[in-house]
Amino acid sequence: MKALVVDDSAGMRAFLRMVLKGAGIEVAEAKNGIEALSVLNCGLKADLALLDWNMPEMDGYELLLWIRSKKAFDSMRIVMVTTETEADQITKALEHGADEYVMKPFTREVILDKLQMIGVETAS
């Protein structure tokens, strides 16, 4: 299993990398949507993406829409991991292809529970 973590916060990427690697998942990272597009277009076969919403250059919602518009990524599971707590934002993301939504701050257990809810098998 491979995951792509996209967040402009190096600390958040490090935390998510630690959680995912601890669960037996390989991790690639990007600091914004543009960098994520480059990683995906260079052939990363990610099974899972964790996307922050608020990032410079290309935000996580725009990236979500791009991923969902590409047949090659139909099976990718996507979790929005964000400070956006408005019900409208949550609904918008889920209606446009996010599989789950996690509001910051969160714990390791919350991430692992959300992954289990969307059928991601973990080693922990």
Description:
There is one protein chain. The chain starts with a strand and ends in a 7-residue tail after the last helix. By secondary structure, it is α/β, with parallel strands linked by helices. The chain has helices spanning 10-22, 33-41, 60-68, 87-95, 108-117; strands at 2-6, 26-30, 48-51, 77-82, 100-103. The radius of gyration is 13 Å and the shape is globular. The protein has one domain: Rossmann fold, CATH 3.40.50. It has five helices and five strands, in the order βαβαβαβαβα. Helices cover 40% and strands 19% of the residues. A five-stranded parallel sheet has the order 2-1-3-4-5, with helices on both faces. α3 (60-68) links the parallel β3 and β4 (77-82).
Strand order of the largest sheet: 2-1-3-4-5
Characterize the quaternary organization of these chains.
single chain
Give the CATH class: Alpha Beta
- Average pLDDT taken over every residue: 95
Q: What's the architecture, going by CATH?
A: 3-Layer(aba) Sandwich
Q: Keyphrases for this structure?
A:
124 residues; alpha/beta; five-stranded parallel sheet
Quick take:
The protein is an alpha/beta fold and 124 residues long. Helices cover 40% and strands 19% of the residues. It has 5 helices and 5 strands; from the N terminus they run E-H-E-H-E-H-E-H-E-H.
Task: Give the arrangement of secondary structure elements.
Blueprint lengths: L1 E5 L3 H13 L3 E5 L2 H9 L6 E4 L8 H9 L8 E6 L4 H9 L4 E4 L4 H10 L7
Parallel strand pairs: 1-2, 1-3, 3-4, 4-5
